């Protein structure tokens, strides 16, 4: 038996790791630090201050950001809820109905948004909405988000389903539960960690989407990412760093939550 | 076929998965209040038959009747039978009490009545103090008893148990056997108990159905099965036996005349369908006695012995080289024959049995 390969022994492993971490996270750290900068410059440190955070909430651009934030959170909540519901139904169908015609095709369809380049989806969605005469606006953003959120909601739910043997529902039906009761009283509660995890993931994905949103949003409608992009076009001001840091905070909290919920569900069985 | 004491009538049931036939023409009656065991090696179709009764598997051909009524059209939740699953399948998000109440609530019992009944059944399985725990906080043996309580609570017409003891360790398993049998007697509910452990089957059952590769090999009391096996599979699977090649000259009145290797003649009981020709004789090792070599004994040479405490296993060889196992009770008087020595083996007339293959 050869000794297991320990990747940490490879020459340059440490240097490469540090390089990757720096490239990935240094920009985020710098943005977060400079969001507390007292100066109007984005490169020179002028002392600690919260003034850019006040600026986000009450400065000249505040109404624009507030409207965008309301749009973003409403769309994310709606899209994540619908996507999670669909993903839950899809996971039950995939894991509980044995083989059926078109099972592989259905799975591919669910996961398609992960594989198609986002720009293609964006252009195609826009063309689709225009060709059926659907007026672009909050509704088109919502529909587009719903579609690409489904696979993100599906993955954790499906992973959870994999660890729930069907003997639980059979035991329920054996004890006089109708198939619907077996689902509602036994399977669904067992799926909850996966569902929550899927919901949070879908919410984050919707919240920070830029490309597709930018294509299908109507004139005058902004979400946070498009509003930020709009601001940056006129030059990067430190208030952008503040709002980005806030968004980063929300993402970190939700992703961490999603991870913990998923893990709690795993250790309970 | 309308005997009133029959709880389940399994009538020529065939079950097929895509290409595998799991059950071939299986027929048996399970009587009211009896402890009925399905015994057979892994993969012989025991679980499949239970699932057919519970409604999780379709019967391809044939019928299953519960108290005379065909249950084919009933979905699982409408069949008045309950199952103890092999891995118990206790609901992990509910307490022990909620688990036991589950079936009662689905049958429309009020919460209070259900709880009363659940506590009664939990006391029966000696888990009264554990009602508020979660299944994951219990030991394997306790989980097994919760599963039993959960399926007994709604007072099913028949209880199905799929290898309920196989997940327990040996010591516990032996204690639970006695307990399970007691509970079955107290409740008077017919149990259909699945196991691959012949000792479990012999010690617990009123009747046993021995299965192999989807066929029923024999149905009978533990004593029938052990002492009067119908075929080679049953004789070999239940307990230890010697299977000797014999020449059958004639069968008259169910008693064949046959010749043992080495020329000794014997008349013994036979399986129902035994015919003249070559056959196999089953002789249990404990039913052979050792004597000095003589005219009316079967000559054998001692090959080896194994000392087992209560018994001594003597491995010997017949004149045609066939091995034979003899079990001698370890009494003060019993000398262990030396390896290589010649013996005469005596087989009582009632102790051997001619089988069909
Ligand atoms: N879902 C299934 N699909 C195909 N074959 C199956 C399935 N379940 C069981 N079988 C086959 O049916 C036969 C009987 O299985 P089973 O009833 O589980 O046996 P046992 O419980 O006696 O071990 C086996 O040969 C097994 O391979
Ligand atoms: Mg089995």
UniProtKB/TrEMBL annotation, chain A:
CDD domains in UniProt: TM_PBP2
GO annotations of cellular component type: plasma membrane
One Pfam family this sequence matches: BPD_transp_1
Bilayer-crossing regions: 12-36, 73-94, 106-132, 138-157, 185-207, 240-261
Keywords, in A-Z order: Cell inner membrane, Cell membrane, Membrane, Transmembrane, Transmembrane helix, Transport
Compartment(s) of residence: Cell inner membrane; Cell membrane
GO biological process, one term: transmembrane transport
Alphabetical list of PROSITE patterns matching this protein: ABC_TM1
Membrane disposition: Multi-pass membrane protein
Gene3D superfamilies on file: MetI-like
Occurrences of domain ABC transmembrane type-1 (ranges): 69-258
Function: Required for the activity of the bacterial periplasmic transport system of putrescine and spermidine.
Family according to the record: Belongs to the binding-protein-dependent transport system permease family. CysTW subfamily.
Name of the protein: Spermidine/putrescine transport system permease protein PotC
Organism of provenance: Aliiruegeria lutimaris
UniProtKB/TrEMBL annotation, chain B:
UniProt GO MF annotations: ABC-type polyamine transporter activity; ATP binding; ATP hydrolysis activity
Superkingdom: Bacteria
Domain spans labelled ABC transporter: 8-238
Keywords: ATP-binding, Cell membrane, Membrane, Nucleotide-binding, Translocase, Transport
Classification via InterPro entries: AAA+_ATPase (IPR003593), ABC_SmlMolc_Importer (IPR050093), ABC_transporter-like_ATP-bd (IPR003439), ABC_transporter-like_CS (IPR017871), Mo/tungstate-bd_C_term_dom (IPR008995), P-loop_NTPase (IPR027417), PotA-like (IPR005893), Transp-assoc_OB_typ2 (IPR013611)
Pfam families: ABC_tran, TOBE_2
GO BP annotations listed: putrescine transport
Reaction it catalyzes: ATP + H2O + polyamine-[polyamine-binding protein]Side 1 = ADP + phosphate + polyamineSide 2 + [polyamine-binding protein]Side 1
UniProt EC number: 7.6.2.11
Enzyme class: translocase
GO cellular component term of the entry, any: ATP-binding cassette (ABC) transporter complex
Family: Belongs to the ABC transporter superfamily. Spermidine/putrescine importer (TC 3.A.1.11.1) family.
Quaternary data: The complex is composed of two ATP-binding proteins (PotA), two transmembrane proteins (PotB and PotC) and a solute-binding protein (PotD).
Function in brief: Part of the ABC transporter complex PotABCD involved in spermidine/putrescine import. Responsible for energy coupling to the transport system.
Protein name: Spermidine/putrescine import ATP-binding protein PotA
Gene: potA
């Amino acid at each position: 038996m050869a000794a297991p390969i320990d990747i940490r022994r490879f020459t340059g492993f440490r240097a490469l790791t540090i390089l990757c971490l720096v490239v990935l996270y240094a920009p985020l750290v710098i943005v977060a630090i400079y969001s507390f900068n007292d100066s109007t410059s984005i490169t020179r440190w002028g002392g600690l201050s919260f003034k850019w955070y006040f600026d986000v909430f009450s400065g000249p651009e505040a109404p624009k950001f507030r409207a965008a934030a309301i749009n973003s959170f409403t769309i994310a909540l709606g899209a994540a809820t619908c996507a999670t519901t669909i993903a839950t139904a899809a996971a039950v169908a995939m894991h509980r109905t044995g083989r059926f015609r078109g099972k592989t095709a259905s799975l591919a369809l669910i996961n398609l948004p992960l594989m198609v380049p986002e720009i293609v989806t964006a252009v195609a969605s826009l063309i689709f909405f225009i060709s059926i005469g659907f007026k672009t606006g909050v509704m088109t953003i919502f529909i587009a988000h719903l579609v690409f959120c489904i696979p993100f909601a599906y993955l954790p739910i499906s992973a959870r389903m994999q660890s729930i043997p069907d003997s639980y529902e059979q035991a329920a039906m054996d004890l006089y539960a109708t198939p619907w009761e077996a689902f509602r009283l036994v399977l669904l509660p067992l799926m909850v960690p996966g569902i929550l995890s899927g919901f949070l993931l879908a919410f984050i994905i919707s919240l920070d989407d830029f490309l597709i949103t930018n294509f299908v949003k109507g004139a005058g409608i902004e979400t946070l990412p498009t509003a930020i992009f709009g601001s940056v076009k006129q030059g990067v001001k430190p208030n952008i760093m503040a709002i980005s840091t806030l968004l980063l905070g929300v993402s970190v909290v939700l992703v961490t939550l999603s991870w913990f919920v998923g893990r709690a569900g795993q250790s309970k069985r | 076929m309308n005997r009133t004491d029959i709880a389940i009538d399994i009538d020529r049931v065939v079950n097929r998965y895509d290409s595998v036939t799991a059950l071939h023409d299986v027929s048996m009656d399970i009587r009211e209040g009896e402890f009925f065991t399905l015994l057979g090696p892994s993969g012989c179709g025991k679980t499949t038959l239970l699932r057919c009764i519970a409604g999780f598997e379709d019967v391809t051909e044939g019928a299953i009747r519960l108290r005379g009524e065909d249950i084919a059209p009933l979905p699982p939740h409408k069949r008045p039978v309950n199952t103890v699953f092999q891995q118990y399948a206790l609901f992990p998000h509910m307490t022990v009490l909620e688990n036991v109440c589950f079936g009662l609530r689905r049958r429309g019992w009020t919460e209070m009545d259900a709880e009363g009944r659940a506590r009664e059944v939990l006391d029966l399985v000696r888990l009264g103090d554990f009602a508020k725990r979660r299944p994951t906080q219990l030991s394997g043996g306790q989980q097994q008893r919760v599963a039993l309580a959960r399926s007994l609570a709604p007072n099913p017409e028949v209880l199905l148990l799929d290898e309920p003891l196989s997940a327990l360790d040996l010591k516990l398993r032996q204690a639970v056997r006695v307990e399970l049998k007691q509970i079955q007697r107290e409740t008077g509910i017919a149990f259909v108990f699945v196991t691959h452990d012949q000792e479990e089957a012999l010690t617990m059952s009123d009747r046993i159905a021995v299965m192999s590769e989807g066929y029923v090999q024999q149905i009978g009391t533990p004593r029938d099965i052990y002492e009067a096996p119908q075929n080679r599979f049953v004789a070999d699977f239940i307990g230890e036996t010697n299977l000797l090649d014999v020449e059958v000259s004639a069968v008259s009145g169910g008693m064949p005349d046959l010749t043992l290797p080495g020329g000794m003649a014997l008349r013994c009981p036979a399986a129902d369908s035994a015919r003249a020709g070559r056959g196999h004789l089953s002789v249990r090792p404990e039913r052979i006695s050792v004597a000095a070599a003589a005219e009316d004994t079967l000559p054998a040479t001692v090959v080896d012995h194994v000392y087992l405490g209560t018994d001594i296993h003597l491995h010997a060889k017949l004149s045609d080289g066939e091995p034979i196992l003899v079990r001698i009770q370890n009494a003060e008087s019993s000398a262990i024959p030396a390896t290589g020595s010649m013996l005469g083996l005596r087989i009582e007339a009632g102790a051997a049995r001619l089988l069909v293959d």
